[in-house]
Amino acid sequence: MGGAVGACIIMKTEKELLWKRLNERFVKAFVQFGLLHDDDHVLVGLSGGKDSLLLTELLARRARILHPRFKVEALHVRMEDVQYETDTSYLQRFCDELGVPLHIKWTRSFVSGAGGEACFICSWQRRKQLFNLAQELGCNKIALGHHQDDLLHTALMNLLYQGRFGTMPALLQMKKMPLQIIRPLCLIPESLIRQYAELSHYEKQVKLCPYEHETNRTTARRMFEQAEAQNPEVRFSLWKALEREGKLVED
Fold first, then answer.
1. CB of 74 within 8 A of CB of 44?
2. What are the pLDDT tens digits along the chain (251 aa)?
3. 220, 227 in Cβ contact below 8 A?
4. Residues 207, 181, 67, CA angle at the centre, nearest 5°?
5. Minimal CA–CA distance to 46: which of 87, 2, 15, 107?
6. Is the Cα dihedral 25, 165, 238, 150 positive or negative?
7. Total-model pTM
8. How far apart are alpha carbons 81 and 102 in whole angstroms?
9. CA distance 115 to 231
10. Using CA atoms, how far apart are residues 192 and 95, in angstroms rounded to an integer?
């Protein structure tokens, strides 16, 4: 019994220390890139994966501090014709505990191909639901759960397949609507999120997307991991290059 109690205490302490690291990077990101301000109304894209769960938790807990003062709501989009699925009852409990209103919308991707084509169309349909609901609710910002690895992999993907240097910015001002896209996890590596998800017992998605395994993004991820295994400084070098070239903010 004593051993079990001791293990629980150690796990709790580990989780608290990890939360502190995550929150520090989250705060640094929204200060450095100007992601959050007083009177913001933020809509989170809550897919149900570990990244969007952490993003929702970070925003909800920060909103309670009232500095800056902002509101948070979440949207989970279900695709009728793509076989990946998250337990919506779990998402509802998760959001209720955080005091975040959860909206659930259904749509179709209308995909007939596979791989990149399917991912692009599906992503656009989900993004469209986010844009529409954000404007209905009067939100001025949409928060997406892309972490630092996502931004770095995208930079590699753009170099390899499009011949340009750029990535998904931490802050993007939409040109045709009064909305900003923000990525508050941009300074957090995926490894820390994975650790926290395990310690917090985040529930995993019921079914994973059938198209997510063999894509250009998968290739870029593997190349990045191989490069980082040989030189741990690769992450910092690529990130500094993105900062130096002004690729992390588009306003």
1. yes
2. 555 655 566 667 899 999 999 999 999 999 999 999 999 999 999 999 999 999 999 999 999 998 899 999 999 998 876 666 688 999 999 999 999 999 999 887 665 555 555 666 777 888 999 999 999 999 999 999 999 999 999 999 999 999 999 999 999 999 989 999 999 999 999 999 999 999 999 998 765 655 555 578 889 999 999 999 999 999 999 999 999 999 999 98
3. no
4. 105
5. 87
6. positive
7. 0.90
8. 22
9. 30
10. 22
Q: Locate tokens 């209720």: which residue?
A: 96
Phi and psi dihedrals of 142, rounded to 5?
-115, 125
What is the secondary structure of the chain as a DSSP string?
Answer: -HHHHHHHHHHHHHHHHHHHHHHHHHHHHHHHTT---TTEEEEEE--SSHHHHHHHHHHHHHHHHTSS-EEEEEEEEEESSS--B--HHHHHHHHHHHT--EEEEEE-----S-THHHHHHHHHHHHHHHHHHHHHHT-SEEE----HHHHHHHHHHHHHHHS------SEEE-SSSS-EEE-TTTTS-HHHHHHHHHHHTPPPPSB--TTSSSSHHHHHHHHHHHHHHH-TTHHHHHHHHHHHTT-SEE-
Q: Which amino acid is at 87?
A: D
Widest distance between CA atoms in the chain: 61
Residue with the two structure tokens 């770095």:
152
Write out the two tokens for 234. Answer: 């690769």
With tokens 């009852």, the residue in question is: 89
Read off the tokens for 160: 């390899």
